[in-house]
Amino acid sequence: xxxxxxxDSSHKSVQRKEMSRRQFLSYTLGGAGAFMGAGMILPMVRxxxxxxxxxxxxSAFVKVVAESEIGSEPKEFKFQISQVDGWYExxxxxxxxxxxxxxxxIYALSPICKHLGCTVxxxxxxxxxxxxxxxxxxxxIDGKQLKVAPLPLDEYDLKIQEGYIYLxxxxxxxxxxxx
Length: 179
What we know:
This protein is an alpha+beta fold. It has 2 helices and 12 strands; from the N terminus they run ααββββββββββββ. The mean pLDDT is 82.
């Protein structure tokens, strides 16, 4: 190979690779399709995630009954709360068993059985216990589990103002000592 051949091969012009019409249309339509797809999906993602980002407000207490109506025998009282689940607002009706304990303190128990979520009733077996008709769970007047249920009945946060009882969110039972 001569010097002249080497010199010619090193100075060849760079050949540009051009985009074909088909490649141009593919890239353009693909980009436009991705842009439109993102435009449809982003609002859906925001709709699903936005309620999770809203700060939780403290639960409001609901006026339920006059303090003078409470005795040593549990009574069931129904009340409504305002509830927001994501975008859905509702006012479900709840219930509470309210009584005055031996210590003179008023407390409210949730009627939801801790075994499988049925509603408990007071003294239906004439034994001064809460009784769950679904599977036979029993609880003492303070909500301590006796049979079947793994945990005591939950308790409502309670406050008394101007002679009325106000109930707040549900909390674990504070009247029962776990062994």
